[in-house]
Amino acid sequence: MLTAMNIPPTNSQSQGPAIHVRGLEKSYKELRVLRGVDLDVARGSIFALLGSNGAGKTTLVRILSTLLKADAGTARVNGFDVATQAADVRESISLTGQFAAVDGILSGRENLVLVARLRHLKDPGAIADDLLRRFSLTEAGTRRAATYSGGMRRRLDIAMSLIGNPPVIFLDEPTTGLDPEARIEVWQAVKELAEGGTTVLLTTQYLNEAEQLADRIAILHQGRIIVNGTLAELKQLLPPAKVEYVEKQPSLEDVFFAVVGDTGDRDKDGDVDKGNQDRTTASNRK
Amino acid sequence: MATHFLGDTAVLTGRTMRHVTRSMDTIITTAITPIAIMLLFVYVFGGAIDTGTVSYVNYMLPGILLITIASGISYTAFRLFNDMQGGIFERFQSMPIARSGVLWAHVLTSLVANVISLVVVVLVALLMGFRSGAGVLAWLAVAGILVLLTMALTWIAVIPGLTAKSVEGASAFSYPLIFLPFISSAFVPTGSMPGPVRAFAEHQPVTSIVNTIRDLLTQQQVGTGIWTALAWCVGILVVAYVFATITYRRKVS
Asked: Which of A62, A78, A114 to mutate to test the interface with B (most CBs of B within 10 A)?
C-alpha cells in the first residue's frame, strides 16, 4: 500500500506526477489533522479523495493550493514545491472550495471577466462568453450570481476555475449540498475537464461520486491515506463477489429522474437545460 | 508578482466599487446617522449651546464629518467580512495575483465611498445654513485631513473585517468611534466640562482634528493644533496599518 519513500528523480515539470505528496503533517493545536500523507496524482487523471467529515480532506487541499502551510513533509504541484515556490504553484492551479466562491453581487459574466483579468488574459469578454456557453449559463449571464440556483452557482464556480487552463484543478466537495440533477451537471463538467487533459483532485464524501468519476481513489482516514488504488483494485480488497440473483429494483434516484428528468422544462429560472441527455445516460447506466 | 500589483489592485478595486454602487443604500445609511445627529443638534440642542460668534451649524460640522467617516468604515469591515466568509477571498489567495491587492482594493473603495458620503453630508449642511468663506487651500487642507483620517480608520476597520466571527462583530467596533466625538470639542466647547472629562476631551484625537478643520473652515489661525491633528492621523494610520498587515499575514499563511 505504501509507496517507496525515496524521492523519484526530479524530472522536468511536464513529466512526473501532477501532484506529489510525501509525509505531509498538519496539526491545529492539539488536533493532528494530517499524520503523514503520501500521495501521487498522475497527469490528466481524476483523483478522488474520499473521507468522512473532519478526515482532513479540506486541510490537504488548502495546503496544496498554498492557503495553508504544512507542519512537516513535502508537497509538489506541477513540479513546484508548495512551500518554497508558492507563486509558481498558484500559476498552475485553480481551487474550487467547499462553498461556491462566486461574487454574488456581480453577474455571472462579470465574475468570469474578473478572473480572466486577474489572470492577465487577452480578451476577457470573449473568454467569459465562451465559458457561459459551455456551462449553459448564457441566458443567466447578465443576472447577479446571488440569484442563481445552487447548481448554476457551482457551474459558474467551476467555470471560473477553468479560466487560463491551469493544468491542475482542486475541487473540494464540489457537489455537497446540490440536488441530484445539479450533481450530475457538475460530474459532466468534471469529466470534460479530464478529457481536456486537466488533472483533477476532487474530494468527496459521496462514494458513488468517486465511483462515477475517478481514475484512482484514495481514502483519507484519521489523517492518513489508508487505501489508494483504482476502483477495480479497491474492490479486490474485499472477498470475491458472490453471484446472487436479486430482482432489480429501481433506486430512488432512477425514480426521481424518471419522474422529473425528462420533462425538459426545468429552466424556470432561466437555466438552459442542455444536461438532459447526459442525465439520462448517467442514470441508465446502472 | 510585484509587477502586477497596480493592475490587480485596479481590477479588484473595480469589483469592490461595484459592491458600493450596486448598493447605494449603504452610502445613504452611512450619511443618515450623521445627518440625523446634525438635525438634532442644530435644531434642538444647538440653541442652548454657546459657541460664541460662530453659528452652531458651522461649529459642529467638523464633528459630524468625523462621525460620517466612523459610520462609513463599518461598511468596509462588513464588505471584507463577507469576502472572507464567502470563499471568494480564498479563490483570490489561491490565484497568481498580488495578494495584498485584495486588501488594498477594499481600502481604496472605502476611501471613495467615504468621500461620497462626506460630500452628501456637506451638501445637507449647506441646506441647513452652513457657510464657509475658506479659500481653495484651506478646503484642500480640510480634504487632506479627512482623507488621512479615513485611511487611518479604514485600516482599523480591516482588522475586525478579517477576524470577526459574525456580521455584528465586524461592524460593532465602529460604535465607540462614532461616540468619541461627543466627548470632545465637536458639539460643545470643552470649557463647560468638569475637570477629568475636560482633560480627556482635550487630549483625545477628535478635539485636535475637529478644532483644526473648524479653524480652517472659519478662516481662523490654525496654530500648532494642525500638527497635533496630523500627528494623531498619521500615528493611528501607521499603527492600524501595521496591525492590519500582521493580521492579514496570519490569515493568508
From this structure: A114
> B92 at the A interface (CB within 8 A)?
yes
Q: At A154, which CATH number?
A: 3.40.50.300
User: What is the domain extent for residue A169?
Assistant: 19-238+246-284
Is A104 touching B (CB cutoff 8 A)?
Answer: yes
Q: How far is B30 from chain A (nearest CA, A)?
A: 19
> To the nearest whole angstrom, how far is the Cα of A262 from the nearest Cα of chain B?
34
For residue A1, tell me if it sits in a domain: no
Own/partner long-range contacts of B170-178 (Cβ < 8 Å, ≥24 apart): B170/B74, B170/B77, B170/B78, B170/B80, B170/B81, B171/B74, B171/B75, B171/B77, B171/B78, B173/B74, B173/B77, B174/B70, B174/B71, B174/B73, B174/B74, B174/B77, B177/B70, B177/B73, B177/B153, B178/B33, B178/B67, B178/B70, B178/B71
Residue of B nearest to A65 (CA): B94
**Span A169-196, pLDDT tens digits:** 999 888 887 788 778 888 888 888 888 8
The predicted-structure confidence for A137-154, as pLDDT tens digits, reads as follows 899 999 999 999 888 888
